[in-house]
Records
---
Amino acid sequence: MSLSESEQTATYASGTDDLRADQLGLAFIRAKNDAPVEWWYYNGHLQSGSDRYSFHTAFFRFNATGFSIGRVLPLRLLGTEIGFGHVSLTDYQQRRTHFSHRRVFGWQVDSGPNDVDLKLKDMSLVVEQDRHRLAANAADCTLNLEMVPSKPIARYGPDGLFGHLLPRRSHHVSYSRMSVSGSIEIEGATRNVDGTAWLDREYGEIGPDPTVAGWIWMSIQLDNDCELMIYHIHRRDQPSTCARAAIIFPDGKVRLIDEQHIQLRTLREFRSELSQAVYPVASQVTVTDPVDGVRWELTVDADFDSCEFDTRGTTSTFYWEGGASVTGSIGGVVVAGKAFMELVGFARQTRLGQFEHARKNLPLISCLANEIRLRVSDCTNQIHDHR
């Protein structure tokens, strides 16, 4: 796979050149109710004095058309739209991750011409011009954060249209660096925090094809004000992988990188006691800029290994999601930074080759069990310790 010269540096699509940066961002971030699938995803690194934390939140909306329970009961009878929400907060001092997920049938998303207003049970997101206000609960924790983009929105292809290395097409954009301020509450104790965040926004025909087993995704924020995003997709029962990356420069320009210029090598693994999945939690990342030949050689290593989440009852998979530290060099110049990793499809119970069929044909017994889980509390909570 190779990228044309016009694809290597994303430019504003026709009809958007006259929009201010905040208007352009809202044009992509507003709800797209005609899209089969869409999501809003944030991750971030926080500090309160010398204490460190990380978080991730995700709002998912699926159109229920084509979904069924027990292969016979159309899921749209419960609502034409399904909403899922995931929240995690990792406390590095206590070596503990707090996670919760929830589901809503018939979830309606609100977006006016100048704002975004999402409410999903105990999660909410309000975007007005350049301010993103997030409130969410994760087990016995609460996040109240305000995020402001430090760069223009990054688009991965013309008009954000990104093939994901899969047959289906989606619009994919990011705010690759956002300043964060606000507070978190852990077990009744409130802490003021600040830090940096990343927003990923996708909508369209999103979903794996039957050959895809899973992926490694990384969002990397370096101290030199550059960012790097990487997708590394592995296929079921095949040694081959596919990859794509994007460099976001300090001025906000985006350069797309194809797979021949990307290498990932696993340095360290973590085995989950819950699913027995083995996750590559530390990797050597090598990316060569095809324009100037500069080599990016980075080591990405998880800050806390026990970050696997069981989302049966919402998005029906096990996945690993957490913060990481970055060291390395660009063109021989030493750099450092922070990252987030998402590792999907490593648990045998929820390999993505079967995920699409299972998601659209929910077994009746499993559906009832998941419903009981979610009815016991308003959302399902998980806490992971590693001492």
---
Amino acid sequence: MLVVGAPESLRGLESLQYVSGLWLYESGLADFSWLPALAEIGASMVARRNANLTAEALESFAASRVRSGALVSLTDAVPKEPPDPDAEAVVCGQPSDLVIAPYTSVAGCTRFRGSIHLSDTTAGALEPLSSLVHIDGSLTLFRNHTDDFTALRNLRRVGAKFQMRLLQGPGLDGFDALAEVGELRLLSSGELTSLDWLPALTRVRESALVMTAPPCLWRTSNLFFRAWTSGARPR
């Protein structure tokens, strides 16, 4: 068994022709030129977190040397840092900004640093919001004359408060992608009967509140809120 952990380079193995196992952990090796004579790996080849060895290099080496039926478990490279969500984002506004109709000032933005207040609006007026993915501040829906919010179909996160007051109808259309909010507030929305219109919501980071709602919504919201605030949507 040859176990290699964390070296940048190796010498002295030029004549090695057989090993029962080859295990590579967190090495800086970029290729297998340090094993020029190795012809067979008898029982296992395992690779984990090798920053400079690609999947193609590992698989090619294993395919030509590991005995048929032996264990092969390969993971290429050290996991990279997750991509910066703002790297390709179009970021607009300042934290103190509050946008009230018209909404043209955020047209084309994918991230808005301020807050947005939708009051007495109609579906057509919301189209400038269609590019939004992330609102750092709050999103408030107040006394709207529509249940069609499909212009917000790309919205995934509200950093602060998502507040709905005096909603009309049993639910809203358009929030299918919304997965996370800071706070959730449902106030004086007597016609709202369920929370099924928030199918992707999995996390409410701080708190959730329902006031002046039908009894059926009270019963279901308690279950949903417990799950949301723990980070997992109920099944």
---
Amino acid sequence: MFLEDNLEVMVEKVGSEIVTLLEDKSQDIKKTLSKVKTRLAPYHQSKKPNSSKASKKKIVNAAEHSLGSPCERPQVSDESTTISRPKMSEMNLLDLSPLKSLAYSLFDHATSYDKKHSNFVDKAHKDKKMELLSNAKERLELFRIEEGEKGKHVSSNKKSLRKVKRKLETLQGE
């Protein structure tokens, strides 16, 4: 029920905006818009609309004005109930330079954000790599020190073992 109410409100708003834009046009166009407005309201139902060509209406924007205007006159044809949009080359309705500059600005900001984010990620990755390398160097130094101590201990054990062997040989020789 909530969706149906919202849909009806949206259709009424769109219909009223179209009517206010075209209120200086002929009475025929107002009748057509009211037909389109009443046809759009029940689209939330599961029933399919009548598909015969005679029952369908199509609103097509006519390109009668060479410069174009926001209030172009729609024409009615008997093909479908969709509202077709004119090609951009036919429209020439708006000065798109502010929109283009806004889009370029948006993409520039997105690119700079991506670069900053990428630099941050790269820096964090390098920092992590440097941390791992420093940890590995510390462990290597500790291993070398430990190995040196063990080597000294082994060499002292070898010396003491040699002394014991000499004493044993001297005792056996006596």
